[in-house]
Amino acid sequence: MLRSVARLMLTGLMLAGLVWSGLSLWRFVQSPVGGALVARGDAELSAAYERALVRHATPDAIAARISARLEEVPRNWVALEGLMTLTEAQDLPGDVASAYARAHAQDHSWRAMGASCGACAYDLRQCSMGADLACGIGVNLTVAGDVLSLSRESGAYLRGEPVDQLDVTLSFIGIGATGLVVVTGGTSYSVKFGAGLMKVAHRMGRLSPGLRRIYTRAAREGVDWAALGAARTTDDLARLGRMEALRPAVELTEAVGRVQARTSTRGALHLVGQMDTLEDARRLARASDTLGPRSVGAFEVLGKSRFLRTGLRLSDTLREAIAGLMAALVAGLGLIWNCMLRRLRRAVA
Question: Beta strand pairing status for 312-314 and 37-39?
Answer without folding.
Answer: antiparallel
